[in-house]
Predict the structure.
Amino acid sequence: MPPEGAAAHYRALESLYAAAPINRFFESRLEVTAPGESRIHFSVDRRHFHAAGAAHGTSYFKMLDDAAFYACNSLVTDRFLLTTQFSLLLTRPLGEGPVVAEGRWISGQRRVFVAEARLVTVDGDEVARGTGTFMRSRIALASLPGYAAA
């Protein structure tokens, strides 16, 4: 039996994430776990390193932004949200291995949403944190092929 209601929306968001062309460069998997919560499972390898041998900031930003974004979009069933601002705090270098970005909605329900996210290593160490604002766009979720495929 196919999922219904919120579960169907969450699976459709996961499908939309998987269909995004950027994820060919950042192999990762989205999991929408509850209203206003998401996780992105990602593995850092040497392709993501800067010249000094640790993950480049683009990896941190991508995973934190996506986790916070999808936490918010889990609460919106009709429109695609857009990131309008994102602040990062990078606290430790990130080496090779699995990492999880955990996103959590903080506030907002109508036009602007606020969420935070953190990057956590397999050992449970937080290596980065971010906070973002997201705004409803004019883009209908149902019009996006990845979302519709779900």
Observations:
- The first strand starts at residue 28 and ends at 34.
- The radius of gyration is 15 Å.
